[in-house]
């Protein structure tokens, strides 16, 4: 035992193990049993067993191994129950320790295998992302539902149907061949970015404002994909984007409150991550190839992290990059971010007109109301600004962001 005992220490250990080991346990069981439902249920039961046993028995020296072994036993119990009246030969095959060697694929990480099965082309794009966030990222259904702006019940049904389709279609738990990887990687990149975003600005009201476990895992997997596809511009762009955002993590939250970009201590930014991100951006620019969405986003963040002070930011270049991004991604969120940059270049009145033009499509998005509140504040329209802050606070899910918005609202005259 590690010596960690008592309810508080055990709960912290279970929480930490869930952050670090969930994907590994689910991936291991999925590979072994070929069934996402079995893997997810057994993993959940193993963590429930940890909650029960670790406070009294102490946290094991290898929590991941304990959880995997326990989950494996739970899975075997379920298989035996389900096969009680069915084909005994099938049960024997599933429970046998003798397995045929698996062909060596391009990637040997079981969690990436799990990514690829969840991102299989047989599933709709939005379903691939939701399923992967649940099975690999370990996010809860409510967290995923907030990311998609849909009801929790609808998201739960979407994930359940996706698992059923994988099982019915007998989609294999293996990595695509090297020649098929470029066509399959775009869905994985989308999932990685959402996992990263959930970690960087967690939406769960009871979770930490920043979940470094998720950002670190997303970056780790992005590095593997970058190594696998060294010529893929978007894989490099996504990694650069994550690194440049992650570099600012320690300066993003102070005393439980979000710190806006113009107030951050830039001396606290990680210079090594910034240097690596800038290098990746320069390498992509040097190829002369037309950049994709992640590469443009990385370039925008490279401009931000190049400025020694907020007042030194090259807003002309940033707006030009957003103009390029709008041609690749016409979503209202991109238009909102462009308007925020325009405010620094052309003033808050011009930006407010653009933001108000997005009201119909972004009424349920807290950042839209937060942007309106700030622009109205800068224009001296305090009453309207307060109402916009109230709406943003109502919609925001991140505790640090709520604290920041509340302070800004209360500072209004």
Automatic annotation (TrEMBL):
Q: Which intervals hold domain RNA polymerase sigma-70 region? A: 24-84
Here the segments flagged for biased composition (Basic and acidic residues) are: 79-96
Q: Name one Pfam family in it.
A: Sigma70_r4_2
Which InterPro entries did the record assign?
DUF6596, RNA_pol_sigma70_r2, RNA_pol_sigma70_r4_t2, RNA_pol_sigma_r2, RNA_pol_sigma_r3/r4-like, TPR-like_helical_dom_sf, WH-like_DNA-bd_sf
- The chain positions of domain RNA polymerase sigma factor 70 region 4 type read 118-166
Looking at the record, the residues that make up the DUF6596 domain are 184-283
Residues spanning the membrane: none
Specify the domain of life of the species encoding this protein.
Bacteria
Keyword set, alphabetical order: Sigma factor, Transcription, Transcription regulation
Disordered, as annotated region: 79-100
Family recorded in the similarity comment = Belongs to the sigma-70 factor family. ECF subfamily.
Q: What is this protein called?
A: RNA polymerase sigma factor
Instruction: Tell me the organism.
Output: Catenulispora pinistramenti
Cite the source lineage. Bacteria, Bacillati, Actinomycetota, Actinomycetes, Catenulisporales
């Amino acid at each position: 035992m590690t010596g960690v005992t008592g309810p508080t220490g055990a709960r912290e250990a279970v929480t930490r193990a869930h952050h670090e080991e969930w994907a590994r346990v689910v991936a291991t069981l999925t590979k072994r049993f070929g069934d996402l439902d079995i893997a997810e249920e057994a993993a959940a039961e193993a963590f429930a067993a940890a909650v029960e046993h670790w406070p009294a028995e102490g946290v094991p020296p290898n929590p991941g191994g304990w959880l995997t072994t326990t989950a494996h036993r739970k899975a075997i119990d379920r298989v035996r129950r389900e096969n009680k009246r069915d084909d005994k030969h099938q049960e024997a095959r599933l429970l046998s320790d003798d397995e045929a060697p698996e062909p060596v694929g391009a990637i040997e990480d079981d969690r990436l295998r799990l990514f690829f099965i969840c991102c299989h082309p047989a599933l709709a794009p939005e379903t691939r992302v939701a399923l992967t966030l649940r099975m690999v990222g370990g996010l809860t259904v409510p967290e995923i539902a907030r990311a998609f702006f849909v009801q929790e019940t609808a998201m739960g049904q979407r994930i359940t149907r996706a698992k059923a389709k994988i099982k019915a279609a007998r989609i294999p738990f293996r990595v695509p061949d090297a020649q098929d990887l470029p066509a399959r990687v775009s869905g994985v990149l989308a999932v990685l970015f959402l996992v990263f975003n959930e970690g960087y600005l967690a939406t769960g009201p009871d979770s930490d404002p920043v979940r470094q476990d998720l950002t670190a895992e997303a970056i780790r997997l992005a590095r593997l994909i970058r190594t696998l596809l060294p010529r893929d511009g978007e894989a490099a762009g996504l990694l650069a984007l994550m690194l440049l955002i992650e570099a600012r993590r320690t300066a993003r939250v102070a005393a439980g409150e979000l710190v806006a970009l113009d107030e951050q201590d830039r001396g606290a930014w990680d210079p090594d991550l910034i240097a690596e991100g800038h290098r990746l951006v320069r390498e992509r620019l040097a190829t002369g190839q037309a950049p994709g969405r992640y590469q443009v986003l990385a370039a925008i963040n490279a401009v931000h992290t190049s400025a020694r002070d907020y007042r030194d930011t090259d807003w002309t270049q940033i707006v030009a990059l957003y103009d390029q991004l709008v041609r690749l991604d016409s979503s209202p969120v991109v238009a909102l971010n462009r308007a925020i940059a325009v405010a620094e270049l052309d003033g808050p009145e011009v930006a407010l007109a653009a933001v108000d033009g997005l009201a119909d499509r972004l009424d349920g998005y807290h950042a839209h109301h937060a942007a309106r509140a700030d622009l109205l504040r800068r224009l001296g329209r305090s009453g309207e600004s307060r109402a916009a802050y109230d709406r943003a606070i109502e919609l925001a899910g991140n505790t640090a962001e709520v604290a920041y918005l509340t302070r800004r609202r209360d500072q209004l005259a």
